[in-house]
Amino acid sequence: MSQPVLNITDLRATVEDKEILKGVNLTVKGGEIHAIMGPNGTGKSTLASTIMGHPKFEVIGGSVQLDGEEVLDMEVDERGRSGLFLAMQYPSEVPGVTNSDFLRQAMQAQSEDGKDVPIFKFIRELDKNVSALEMNKDLPHRYLNEGFSGGEKKRNEILQMMMLKPKIAILDEIDSGLDVDAMRIVGNAVNSMRSSEFGCLLITHYQRLLDHIEPDYVHVMMQGRIVKSGGKELMKRIDTEGYEWIKQELGITDERVVIEDEPKARESIGSCATSDMFKI
Amino acid sequence: MTQVSRFMDELKKRAASELAGLSLPKAEKTVIKNWDFETLALNEVAPAAGIPAVAAGLVKEEDANTVIVVDGKIVYSKLSDSFKDVVIAPITEVADEHLSLVQEHLGKAAPYNANKLAAMNLINLNGGLFIYAPKNTVIEEALSVIYVQQDRSLINRNLIVLGQSAELKLVEAYVNDSKAIINLVTEVVVGDNAKLDHATMERLHADVTAYNSKRVHVQKHGRYDLSHGALSDGNVVTENLIGLVGEGAESEVNVVAIAEKTQKQNVTVMIEHLAPRTIGNIVNHGISQDEAQLVFNGIGKIHKGMKGSNAEQESRVMILSENARADANPLLLIEEYDVMAGHAAGVGKIDEEQIYYMMSRGVTRREAELLIIQGFLMPFVNEISNESVREELTKTIQAKISA
């Protein structure tokens, strides 16, 4: 296997006709860990979702290439099979589908020759990763994310990443909902994947996670683009001084492009009947 | 003529005299007045012995405790020693030693004049079993009964009686593969402290019109659990009506229904709390696709004075096609203050967020949809105790949803 390269060029995207990404440029190579920081509402999560192909976001310009292939021309599942992985901020719950059945099907979909994933190898690897993430042993038999705590969901995203071994992983606020111990465990897990065949893009607005996963590059996002890039020293300065100095330096008064709201659970409710409707 | 058949003839006469005044069952939200329940073919038949082809998938040679009934006649029966104390007989040939049981129970939970179809069922009955587990009979193994319609209308009436503290697992399947009128009434009495684990599956042909009614009484501290798979291709009115008549009686009813092509499925589940401290739980899950219509009516009724009771229900339908229709009607009728009750109901499409999430891991849209639908329906299947039936059910569901 070779060193993967994700090339994001002048990426622009809208949601409900409002432009959120206003020209993002970034290259992530195998062996590198990039952190994208920035206050809320500056387009960080939109970047992650747009790369993965969430239907809510419409690309209006630019390109995203993985190893020279245009990702933006692919369906979501093709993006997954091409080696992209997004650890989501709000992973869906899927009742009735067990974690292990789902993982096995996903691995099956990703196996290059379409061969069956050997069951014993699968179980061995799953067990190993479940222990590495200090998750409950019954996890494989539980339904996908159903009834999981926030922290469990995040660990489950990392578990899927470890099993699927993507070329490029984007971790969207993987630290939210994690306590100190879980942060260390997740950090160790990501570090264990470090190799020239794996590149990683961390999205966070806290510096805490970066105590555990040391990034090679740090980028600050404001107003829908990357406004400043640097190394660890940039991260340290943000940690002590916040973002105000960057805004001043760049003459930015309002860094936001969107007020990100949390997804609501959707449910249609049947009609409530009245008492004389039924007589049996 | 036996005393039992004399008693039944007497009931039939009464049913016949009241028939003209009875109307069709109330299948809320489905118009059934033009469904043909009445052009009955009641010719004599002589089915061949052995396992008919249509039931082949449901029973393996090595399966123990299986009874196959074709057009009302038992053609195959294999029972282990565990069932030596259990009476299993055609409803038309019940021995006189059980006269008092039949007199006490027949038509009580399932009155012959409940509606026109119930009356027609008794008047024309040409099949069905009397199953009686006497007091303290506890059997771990499951009994499987497969009812096959072949060469005439199937008018089937079962009477299932569990004596005090008896425990039984009963799996029943109704199958056929051609046009027919099918009228099924199953009357169940679960005695004091007794327990019936009942799984039923119905897989009938697209040109079938069927009425499938189960009426159950659960006595003091008894328990009745039902898993019903409404997997027919034709038009079906289904009723699962449970009366918790004894203090502390409990019932849990799980229904899974699939409606597809142009079929109509109307499923009513009612748990009626007729004694204090009774517990009822209804869970209905279904899918509706193509141009089909699926209706779930869930009813929890707690009568006045039945303190300490709990009535819960949940009905959910996934609509998989633009032109498919579905209704989930939850109804709680509560006449007592000191109770608990709750309902949830929903009709909707597959959540696009779930699809996106699963696709992002590399599975195709179709694979993701199938996983979600299976996950929505499968928990029901896992409740079924007979392995052959469980496998067949899984196959049927998979074939229906991946068509």
Write structural notes for this entry.
The complex is a heterodimer of chains A (280) and B (403). Chain A is α/β, with parallel strands linked by helices and 280 residues long. Chain A has helices at 44-52, 76-81, 99-110, 119-132, 150-164, 180-193, 232-241, 244-250; strands spanning 5-15, 18-29, 33-37, 57-66, 69-70, 84-87, 94-98, 143-144, 168-172, 199-203, 217-222, 225-230. In chain A, strands 6-9-10-3-11-12 form a six-stranded mixed β-sheet, with helices on both faces. The termini of chain A are far apart. Chain B has 403 residues and is an alpha/beta fold. In chain B, 18% of the residues lie in helices and 41% in strands. Chain B has six helices and 19 strands. In chain B, β1 and β2 form a beta hairpin. The longest helix of chain B is centred in the C-terminal third of the chain and has 17 residues, at 365-381. Chain B starts with a helix and ends with a helix. Classes of the chains: A alpha/beta (280), B alpha/beta (403).
Low-confidence stretches of chain A: 270-280
Poorly predicted parts of chain B: none
Total number of helical segments of chain A?
Answer: 8
**Rg of chain B, Å, rounded:** 21 Å
| Secondary structure: number of strands of chain B | 19
Helix content bin of chain B: 10-25%
Judging by the overall fold, what is the CATH architecture of chain A? Answer: 3-Layer(aba) Sandwich
Separation of the first and last Cα atoms of chain B = 51 Å
Neighbour order of strands in the largest sheet of chain A = 6-9-10-3-11-12
Shape of chain B: globular
From the structure provided, what is the oligomeric state, counting identical versus distinct chains?
A: heterodimer
